[in-house]
Amino acid sequence: MKTDNVILGVLGGLAAGAILGILYAPDKGEKTRKRIKDKSMDCADDLKCKLDAVVENISEKYNDLKKESKEMYAEGKSKIEQAHQDLENQAKNLKA
């Protein structure tokens, strides 16, 4: 997660620098506003792609953990049933 935070911080800094650079550029206001709009749309698209990747990664990890927990549950249940059966067999042997 720390790497993701660093990447987002760098991208945010680059976006802020680009916006400040555009604001102080010697272009007309209309052209400057268009460039700001275009840059902000690009940044928004990049962030959306990164967010989608993070969500997909989390979803995959969730599904993996879910599968693993089901397997562990089935294994634990099997061991408990086996232990129960062993105890019943020992109880029968003791009675005999």
TrEMBL record:
Positions of transmembrane segments: 6-25
Matching Pfam families: YtxH
InterPro entries: Desiccation-related_membrane, YtxH
Biased amino acid composition, Basic and acidic residues: 76-89
Span list, region Disordered: 76-96
Keywords: Membrane, Transmembrane, Transmembrane helix
Protein name (database record): Gas vesicle protein
Native source organism of the sequence: Flavobacterium crassostreae
Organism classification: Bacteria, Pseudomonadati, Bacteroidota, Flavobacteriia, Flavobacteriales
